[in-house]
Amino acid sequence: MNNIQILEDKITKVIAKLKALKSDKDKLNSKIDDLKEALQKKDEELRAARQDLKSVDALKNDIDKLTIERETVRSQVETLLQELESVEI
C-alpha cells in the first residue's frame, strides 16, 4: 500500500468516527431536551403541590379555630346548664 492509500484509509476512519460522534451528540441533545421538558413539568407539579399545601394549612387553621370556638361554646352551655340546675323553680 502506498502512503496516499494509507492516508485515505485514515481519513475515511476519521470521517466515520466524526459521523458517529455527531450522531451521539444529536441523541444526547435530544435527551437533554426531553429531560428539560420533564423538569419543567415537575416544577409545575411542585408549584401546584405547594399551593395545595398552603390551602390545606389554611383549612387546618380554620378547623383549629372552629374546634376552639366549639369548646368555648360547650363550656358556656355547661355553665348555663349548671346555673339553671341550681335555680329551684
List key phrases describing it.
mainly alpha; 89 residues; 94% helix; rod-shaped; 1 helix; 0% strand
Commentary on this structure:
With 89 residues, this protein is mainly α. The protein is 94% helix and 0% strand.
Secondary-structure blueprint of this entry?
Elements: H1 3-86
Can you count the helices?
1
Q: What percentage of residues falls in helices of 4 or more residues?
A: over 70%
Mean pLDDT figure: 95
Assign an overall shape.
rod-shaped
CA(first)-CA(last) distance: 129 Å
Number of strands: 0
Largest sheet: none
Unreliable spans are: none
Tell me the strand percentage band: under 5%
Alpha-carbon Rg, integer: 38 Å
Q: List SSEs in N-to-C order.
A: H
- Backbone structural class: mainly alpha
Quick structural gist:
The chain has one helix at residues 3-86.
